From TrEMBL:
Main location: Golgi
Cross-referenced Pfam families: V-SNARE_C
Biological source species: Setophaga kirtlandii
Cellular compartments per GO CC: cis-Golgi network; Golgi medial cisterna; Golgi membrane; SNARE complex
This protein's name: Golgi SNAP receptor complex member 1
Amino acid sequence: DLRKQARQLENELDLKLVSFSKLCTSYSSSRDGRRDRYSSDTTPLLNGSSQDRMFETMAVEIEQLLGKLTGINDKMAEYTNSAGVPSLNAALMHTLQRHRDILQDYTHEFHKTKANFLAIRERENLLGSVRKDIESYKSGSGVNNRRTELFLKEHEHLRNSDRLIEETISIAMATKENMTSQRGMLKSIQSKMNTLANRFPAVNNLIQRINLRKRRDSLILGGVVGVCTILLLLYAFH
């Protein structure tokens, strides 16, 4: 009884899969005919077409038949593993394996056909959208074309502004690097001067003595000038 049910489901699945494959094959050409007949914006949506509804219905039916066939195979597997049938166990296992292979083939064929159908539908949808955009662009009014030109000009201005900003940033970075290098050079010179000053302390002492003598000579010269001035004043008023 289980084998009879399995064969019946397999025959139904075979017929459904043949019709399903024909639907996938004829979808592209019928889609081209619909696109030629409806080139305006009132073209019906792809998911609402009769072939799409037929595809969804057939896919659900095939999935239900596959589920039923899977359940029958599971029942046959339980029967072969039950007690009381040891003499026929090998033959039953062979029969069960054959039905499992058929189920696997039907499942693989269904998923492959379904994936092809979805790929064709997605490609047709994309091509239809591109054609629609091209036709919309070609049939656009002068105002839309003018607006597009303004957008392109504005985009070019923005690109020029970005380029100027990048050039300004590059100049600022180069200036920063030059200032950093100059600061390093000044620090190096200062460190060398400090090293020389620490290495030759006698030079510092000599410079200090020279400064002290200059100050003493200035004081002496100032004192002499002051005394001479006072003497001249006293002589003038005597």
